[in-house]
Amino acid sequence: MQEFTIDVQQQIAASETPGAEFQALPWTRQRVVFFQLPESVQRDVLDDMDRQEVRRFVRRLDPDDATDVVGLLDEDTQGAVLGQLETDRRERIEFLLKFSPDSAAGMMDLGYVTVDKDQGFEEVARLVRRHEARTGRFPTVFVTDGDEVLGELPGHTLALAGHGSAVITEYLRPAPTVRYEQPDSEVIEVFRANPQSKIVVLDEDDSILGVIYADDLLQAIEEEAGQTLYEFTGVDEQESVLDGAFEKVRRRYKWLIINLGTAFLAAATVGLFEDTIAALTLLAIYMPVVAGMGGNAGTQSMAVTVRGIALEQISLRTGRRAIGNEVLAGAVNGVITGVIVAVIATLFNQSPLLGLVIGIAMVLNLVIAGFFGALVPLVLDRLGYDPATSATIFITTATDVLGFFIFLGLAQVVLL
Amino acid sequence: MQEFTIDVQQQIAASETPGAEFQALPWTRQRVVFFQLPESVQRDVLDDMDRQEVRRFVRRLDPDDATDVVGLLDEDTQGAVLGQLETDRRERIEFLLKFSPDSAAGMMDLGYVTVDKDQGFEEVARLVRRHEARTGRFPTVFVTDGDEVLGELPGHTLALAGHGSAVITEYLRPAPTVRYEQPDSEVIEVFRANPQSKIVVLDEDDSILGVIYADDLLQAIEEEAGQTLYEFTGVDEQESVLDGAFEKVRRRYKWLIINLGTAFLAAATVGLFEDTIAALTLLAIYMPVVAGMGGNAGTQSMAVTVRGIALEQISLRTGRRAIGNEVLAGAVNGVITGVIVAVIATLFNQSPLLGLVIGIAMVLNLVIAGFFGALVPLVLDRLGYDPATSATIFITTATDVLGFFIFLGLAQVVLL
């Protein structure tokens, strides 16, 4: 089953006729496979299908999934496909298309009905049956008082319909709300605090636009999940392993050029000590050790801080203690690795002074790594930037430039 | 609200009396805050509470959440706390404690009832009412034929109770199943293919052990999400930004020592060319450029491949084309950045030959980065290792060692 999914996805991505390949799948597989494909391949599949075929695919999807598919089409095809759907379906999709896919409204679903608090279970049952007949799905039932949402009526309370005069407001579960334009991340936050509820999406007037289920959120969370390492390495979040080579180049070269700047800063630092290196070539051999260890330690501190920011365990304002701990941890790890390097350098090169210089450089560079590794993401977060993406540039620059400066500078003073 | 959560978590983590601090929160906040705290702080909180207080906290939680809390206690306290709970509750928790928290059984919930396919809606309604009276929660209803699970009966079908002779098997929704010992990641996989279902957890005999809801999965997915960058940087997955400095050292020093090995391999490679560097110190200045760019490009290829593996879009068997694309992308990016570096080196150092050498080294190193960046995670995945954790070591070693070798080797041949 797993291998099967892999094969199918790869096969579609590599095919000259991805649309035909895709349509050869049984319907239930189509739904699953399509939404697992990277966006670039989804577009290829749709491009390779004619309008009738796209329409056939779209009409069998839930409105919110259908909206995601229609959103990938160019405007002409969009109009042609929508024009051929039943009016009710078309209107729902057109409504959902108005919202950003990364907002609360982009995640929401139209599977709900609303009833007034004064209505009885008979009326609720009637609305539910009508919705079910039209959509094939049991809706979430929201109870309102005028425009205000009072809560959700659990589905099983329908068993009370026909059993006399039960009052619906006595069976309400609280329904947390979000605004239609709130970003995914804030919706996830609301869900975290109310894990067993459905979330109501409201527009500016506080009227209900839709409902978000846990499974809609899961997709958003999974997407967020894959992004950290991407952001960290400067890969465009849309990139997929199945993309072609030139697509990959287009998505990465800018980051590499930015890093080239960083690398040249490090090179310039080394350049300051050209004479020192000329006098003692041995130093060039230990340069990768100093830089590599600083980079690794800084990345560790950064990873922990970025996760702490994401989990809201820390902010710049409350971070002083955490930064202090990173610096202290850097110092201790610096002593551990510095002693090892110093011993090796002393034994191999018969120079205790070289060992001392590189050991001290190691301790200082790991302190720098801890300090910047924790501080940079916190500052970026405070300034409103994404800490995972940009932090590495600054941290690597700090550990490379300061690391080389300390190591070669110490060497110049002590060894020459 | 966000700042409030941050403050509370930090305050508890930093407090001398974390248990008292925690218990000062209103109950609804306690539940949310506790499960957001890092595990080390959760333990501190529980250590600082006496058995009565722990019991008071545990008795108000759902059995699966209660199990997570009880699982953090030492054996003595565990016994004392469990011994004072109502029998029904205690038995449920004791049952759940038997399973690994990272397995399907560790995520599951006991909020279900089973009915035989031949029973009527009246019997279903009776079981549901009994379960609700006992637990305060509406259960999921599974319909079985002997031991075989036929499906789930949607809650709203209870409206059919008392309306004559409806047959329950006509209202079934399919219920996907997992084995109790399957890891989180496989359960998430099943959920992806069946996003709107509850998942049944079965034991070896195919009898039902529990049910997994979307919100149980969410926690697992969020945990998985935070882990990639951790694995990538060699940080222990339990580490939190709120941990103390020595906790941090304990969790990281091993990875740093492993990386020291890598760094020494790079140093040894440079050592082979000590005479070359002595003759042309300029080379030492460009070393960080070659190594840095190779490392960055390799990490990009790795990030994309690791995500592709996680999304099951690729495996070693089907990966040839993707590896080819990474190599080609590396070559193109190598030419782009290589030309920039060559021009700069030529202008700054008045040596077109040095520019040529460093430009060619850049192209070759980015090809190496693309090749190993894609291949290493795929091989590790095939061998059953986690690709995110160990891949960087191998990829960095490849780009450093081969990068220095090519750059300095070429320089020796061309420039001396």
UniProtKB/TrEMBL annotation, chains A, B:
SUPFAM superfamilies: CBS-domain pair, MgtE membrane domain-like, MgtE N-terminal domain-like. The chain crosses the membrane at residues 255-273, 285-306, 327-348, 354-380, 392-415. Keywords: CBS domain, Magnesium, Membrane, Transmembrane, Transmembrane helix, Transport. It is a multi-pass membrane protein. Its main location: membrane. The keyword Metal-binding does not apply. Residues 171-228 form the CBS domain. It comes from the Archaea. It is found in: Membrane. It holds the Pfam family MgtE_N. The keyword Disulfide bond does not apply. GO terms for cellular component: membrane. InterPro entries: CBS_dom (IPR000644), CBS_dom_sf (IPR046342), Mg_transptr_MgtE_intracell_dom (IPR006668), MgtE_N_sf (IPR038076), SLC41_membr_dom (IPR006667), SLC41_membr_dom_sf (IPR036739). Belongs to the SLC41A transporter family. PANTHER family: MAGNESIUM TRANSPORTER MGTE, SLC41A_MGTE INTEGRAL MEMBRANE DOMAIN-CONTAINING PROTEIN. This is Magnesium transporter.
